[in-house]
Amino acid sequence: MWSFPIHVIVCLMDINETVVWGIRGQSSPGVIDGLVDEFEFRSGLKLHPVAKEHIRSGSGHVSDPFPRLEEHDGYLFGQLSIPSSVTDENADFDEVVFAMTHNYVVAVVTAHENTEIKWETIPRILAANSLSFDQGSFAGRFLVSLFQFSVSKIFDDARYLLQLMIGISHKLLIRTQDQRKDEMSVITISSMTRKQRQVFMHEVDGVREDLSGVRKELPGIKRIISQTGSILNSIASDEIDLNVAVDEVETEMFPHHLEIHLSDLCIEIRHIESWIEEIDELIELANDQIKQVDAFAQIRANQFTGAIASIMLVPTFIVGLYGQNLNFPEKDTYYGYLISWLLILCATVGQVLFFRRRRWI
Fold first, then answer.
1. Which of 121, 179, 219, 330 is close enough to 336 for a disulfide, judged by CB 3.0 to 4.6 Å?
2. What is the pLDDT of residues 188-211, one digit of tens each?
3. Total domains, the chain
């Protein structure tokens, strides 16, 4: 019987239908090698060196995901990438590398340290879900369940990113299409009061980190969506399958019944792609808005500096003028000192009022 540690999960649906599920980091390298050897012994097939290496060590590019599914000699080999968390904007992914014949599946998970997925429970859930399909081989039904799980996580992650971007858009006062038709419904930063502007600038500073996280995660999600959609389409269109003779009858791993389920997942992927397009548009609008805010802040800083320089210039000129070692008519008058102060105060107060009215200070 199996002598692997508890971190290798064995789902025995039938005497001839088995899923062996290892979790890298919790299972020793020797155990992973044992999974490969057991697969070759049970299937009577020899895994390609590339498949062996990926099962033993992973793809080596967990943070730069590229899902794949290939038909090798008598078995299917593939790897799927799944968002580690669907409640943040971190670009972290878990990876499932697997090989399968019609009735035997071996899979090894490389999980991110912050993953929210309890991978030790997943194989039994997938195996149980596979029983809901009426047709297809055990491994084919299991893989369809794995794809459903993967797409659901991608769906949740894309939905979270979209909701996050909508929230960022509201904070940045990004105009919707309806608002663009009614320019009076939108408050621009130049028309805000000083208090409104302070609150708005604080909101802008608060969303920069979230926006940066979305931009960082989006390329990986896009690749996962694109590659997963391509794999699903290849199976649904019968470009990828594994045919074996059962009782002298050629049997597909993915009969038409399962291909319909995969076609439905392709439609789900298209919905997710439409969300990604909307996220891209919101990111572009957010970037433009932040650039305008930064440009406005720079202009305001220049205006403030210019106003202060101007306010100080006139009093400095008056002081310098009367500081010359010359005889001025005002020096011999009783009110000469008062006149100089009145000139300084009037020039200063007048400029302060002028620049405040123009909102330079």
1. 330
2. 676 777 788 888 888 888 888 888
3. 1
